[in-house]
Design brief:
Layout (H helix, E strand, L loop, with lengths): L1 E5 L6 H12 L3 E3 H10 L3 H12 L5 H11 L9 E4 L5 H13 L6 E6 L2 H10 L1 E3 L5 E2 L19 E2 L6 H15 L2 H7 L3 E5 L4 H11 L1
Parallel strand pairs: 1-3, 1-4, 2-3, 4-8
Antiparallel strand pairs: 5-6, 5-7
Helix pairs in contact: 1-9, 2-3, 4-5, 6-7
Bound molecules: adenosine monophosphate.
Length: 212
């Protein structure tokens, strides 16, 4: 299965793609997670992207496309993968199209998860993640333990640097100005489906399963 989960920050792409990844035995390929990992390990890529990410700005297309090109050729991607947070611009969508041809990949399904902005802003202000394994915690679905230690790996649970109110609004602005038009790119190619993400996580997941 080759799937793109599309949508604004905070709509639940990460949560849903992790579940789909377990269900179908194919990896979640999250450009955000890959970049956070690069920052954590203080790699050259990490130092190149850190300040942009903290400001809520997009990382240059060529950096992202080269990351994706390498990642999707790794052995665990041979039977498919779920793209989370990519493509985010028209050049990225075009670059993905060229990669699909070059690597003879089948057509992708592209599913948008939609949630109104006011809900996104609330969700992101409450979101916490494990600084080690990236597990998401939120007060309703998956509250963090009182000691702020991740139940999966023992890492410390923190707020993401880019989940501050001001940065969240900037990321939403960037989503509407640079990312939302990727939608028409896929719509024109008949590859677009959309589900309501403003519901219980299991309901959203069941809808995704039905579509897939
Ligand atoms: P995410 O975890 O998907 O919300 O991404 C967090 C941040 O990583 C974004 O605000 C961008 O700074 C950067 N980023 C992740 N994916 C991309 C992408 N496809 N294109 C450009 N920047 C990205």
């Amino acid at each position: 299965m080759y799937l793109i989960l599309f949508g604004a920050p905070g709509v639940g792409k990460g949560t849903q793609s992790k579940r789909l990844s377990r269900e179908f035995g194919i990896p979640q390929v999250s450009t955000g997670d890959m970049l956070r990992q690069a920052i954590k390990t203080e790699s050259e890529l990490g130092s190149q992207v850190k300040s942009r990410m903290e400001r809520g700005e997009l990382v240059p297309d060529e950096v992202i496309l080269s990351l994706i090109e390498q990642r999707i050729q790794e052995p665990d991607c041979s039977k498919g993968f779920i793209l989370d947070g990519f493509p985010r611009t028209i050049p990225q969508a075009e670059g993905l199209g060229q990669l699909m041809q070059k690597l003879s990949l089948p057509a992708f399904r592209c599913i948008e998860i939609y949630v109104p902005d006011e809900i996104i802003i609330r969700r992101l202000s409450e979101r916490k993640i494990c600084s080690s394994c990236g597990t998401d915690y939120n007060p309703i679905l998956n509250p963090e333990p009182a000691d702020h230690i991740c139940i999966k790996c023992g890492g410390s649970i923190i707020s993401r640097n880019d989940d501050t109110d001001q940065t969240v609004r900037k990321r939403l602005d960037i989503y509407y100005s640079q990312t939302a038009n990727v939608k028409s790119y896929f719509q024109q190619r008949g590859m677009w489906e959309r589900i309501d993400g403003n519901r219980n996580v299991n309901e959203v997941y069941n809808d995704l399963l039905k579509l897939i």
